[in-house]
Amino acid sequence: MRQREVLRRLSAALLLALVSSAMWAAWLGWDQQRDVHADGSTTGPYAAWQVIGLVLTLLAPVYWAASRRHFAALPGVTAGLTAAAFYDWSDDSSGLYVIGVGMIMLGSLAAITAVAAVITALKQGHRPPPPATAPLGV
Fold first, then answer.
1. pLDDT-derived band of residue 23, with 50, 70 and 90 as boundaries?
2. CB–CB of 34/44 below 8 Å?
3. How many CB atoms lie within 10 A of CB 114?
4. Which residues are 35's β-sheet partners?
5. Would you call 108 exposed, middle or buried from its count of C-beta atoms within 10 A (0-12, 13-18, 19+)?
């Protein structure tokens, strides 16, 4: 593989990592307070709409990479989310944040792989069929 191709793939992965980290910060990074309910239970710090917003906005860079067949760049999204979660949650005194970060890493990798497969399948479904070739010896 040529050096230029390697640099292009690496820069695409880095771009996706930066974009996904920025999206984490925009959707989840500002909300750090848990909500305490009347019965003493706590939820949060994120609301469902924040996580749904993050997932929906991440579809755009995943679509960009998958539709251009930049499959090597797709783990950049997982790397960006994992780094953002690690940074965001590392002040947890229980140490359980490592499990959450691992779940973010594995879950986002699985979800991105599935979404990229669907996008690729849909894009191939809209291509014209290849031209028919004559059998050998004719």
1. very high
2. yes
3. 10
4. 43
5. buried
Measured at the CA of 126, the angle between CA 5 and CA 117, to 5 degrees, comes to 55
Q: What is the pLDDT of residues 50-91, one digit of tens each?
A: 999 999 999 999 999 999 888 889 999 999 999 999 999 888
**Token digits for 93?**
């005194």
Residue 99's region, left for phi above 0, alpha for psi from -120 to 50, else beta, is alpha
DSSP state of 91: T
Structure-block tokens of residue 33: 């307070």
CA distance linking residue 7 with residue 54, whole number of Å: 28
Q: Which residue has the tokens 């640099």?
A: 7
pTM (2 d.p.): 0.82
